[in-house]
């Protein structure tokens, strides 16, 4: 059993899980996919989220096929084909009623306008909870306040804070046989250099405790607000734990990232940001990083790992300082079609900083002499055709 609902995007989504680009100058479209446990409204217990980000507000039609397989099996367990229509950016919610178990999920999307196929795969199996005394949904993140309604505005994939001031999270809890439960919601910040994937890698920043009275209720919805302006840039995790007295009945967690303005700019065009590392990496290492395969989440993690290998605990600060110089060079030293950070003057500026400059004019020609007393270095640039070229 399944259903499909389209929710018009009301404000920018936070992307991060699956990123697919349609080639050609006429369209750069983004598709993302995720699967979530739901406690069930309308006879469904799981939701597949397909998010489409369009470059323009226009009607588009797509032919979509979604396959669910039992984990590790080749044979398709459930296959659904449908026509989806989008005006601009949309999130499509496809509901399923599934037996408990683990599922591999993939989707193929055909764009008839461009005669192009997109393929999306969930990076890890989807685990559907078995019916128990207590049942916890996945944690949902939202860019909007949490209403007590069946449909909310979910974020698809591991999100990051692109200009948001507030982020909301919520979870559904089914425990009709319990008179009282204790709930603990904890916000953690990642510790640099630790192994990701457990609370041991994070430092607790804030905690909220409350008591729930779920007996006889179909579900209890818990939600809270995260004020991103109060958080410094970095990786974070929200964990919700449910207890009966001191006995832990279950827990769920979700991660997100808060980015500074300069980090948002860095990750907005990751390929260019990697190319800008030419003054830090050997050519072979730069090529390997550019050739990393996978979706943008994988590429971004490898990008971060490269910076960690260079500067360890200081990598965030060093990254921001480096790109501030790169972006300043881009603005100050462009020459024709060459971006300012890639010109001769931009190269020297990025590597050595602000110079002491002397203008030399002789015989109708102009030179610039840049000196760095700290390193006893001197560079001479000759002006040619509105550009300056390093001559010594």
Described by strand count, sense and barrel closure, the largest sheet is:
5 strands, antiparallel
Q: Spell out the helices and strands N to C.
A: EEEEEEEEEEEEEEEEEHHHHHHEEEE
Oligomer: single chain
Q: Give the strand tally.
A: 21
CATH superfamily of the largest domain: Immunoglobulins
**What is the CATH topology of the largest domain?**
Immunoglobulin-like
Number of continuous helical runs: 6
Poorly predicted regions? 1-28, 148-162, 193-200
Quick one: overall form? elongated
Beta fraction: 35-45%
**CATH architecture classification of the largest domain:** Sandwich
Taking Cα atoms only, what radius of gyration do you get, to the nearest Å? 26 Å
Q: What is the average of the pLDDT values?
A: 80
CATH class of the largest domain: Mainly Beta
Q: What structural class do helix, strand and pairing data support?
A: alpha+beta
Summary?
This protein folds into four domains: 1-129, Immunoglobulins (Immunoglobulin-like, Sandwich); 132-259, Sandwich (Immunoglobulin-like), CATH 2.60.40; 261-332; 337-392, no CATH class. It has six helices and 21 strands.
Describe the structure in your own words.
This protein is an alpha+beta fold and 392 residues long. The protein folds into four domains: 1-129, Immunoglobulins (Immunoglobulin-like, Sandwich); 132-259, Immunoglobulin-like, CATH 2.60.40; 261-332; 337-392, no CATH class. It is 17% helix and 42% strand. It is built from six helices and 21 strands. The strands form five sheets. Strands 4, 5, 7, 8 and 9 form a five-stranded antiparallel sheet that branches. The chain has a four-stranded antiparallel sheet with strand order 1-6-3-2, with no helix packed on it. A hairpin with a 4-residue loop joins strand 19 and strand 20. The chain starts with a strand and ends with a strand. Residues 1-28, 148-162 and 193-200 have low confidence and may be disordered.
